[in-house]
Amino acid sequence: MNVDQIVQKWHDDALREGLVRGRQEGRQEGRQEGRQAGRLEAAREVLLNLVERRFGPPPPSLSDRIAGVNDDAVLQAWALQAAEADDLASLLASIANGH
C-alpha cells in the first residue's frame, strides 16, 4: 500500500465514522424532540381536562391558546392557576395578563 492509498483509506474510514456518528446524533435528537413534544401534549391535555372539570368546556379561544404554547413551564403555571381560580373569567384574565 502506498502513501496515497493509506491517506485515501484514512479519509474513507473517517468519512464512514462521521456518517455513522451523524446518523446516531440525528436519531438521538429526534428522540429528544419526540419526548419534548410528548411532554407538551400531556401538559396541554392535563390543563384542558382541569379547566373542563372545574369550569365546563373551555372556550375555543382558550383551547387554541393552550395549543399554541410550547413551554412546559407556562403550561404548568396555567394548570396551577386553573386549580386555584375562582371561576373561568378569573383564569382567563390571569392568563391574558401573563400571570
Strand content: under 5%
Instruction: Tell me the radius of gyration.
Output: 25 Å
Q: Report the structural category.
A: mainly alpha
Global geometry: rod-shaped
- The stretches of 5 or more residues where confidence is low (pLDDT under 50) are none
Q: Please provide the count of β strands.
A: 0
Question: How would you concisely characterize the structure shown here?
Answer:
This protein is mainly alpha-helical.
What report would you give on this structure?
The protein has helices spanning 3-55, 60-67, 72-84, 88-96. The chain has 99 residues and is mainly α. The chain has one domain (3-96). The radius of gyration is 25 Å and the shape is rod-shaped.
Defining key terms:
rod-shaped, 99 residues, single chain, 4 helices, mainly alpha
Topology:
Elements: H1 3-55, H2 60-67, H3 72-84, H4 88-96
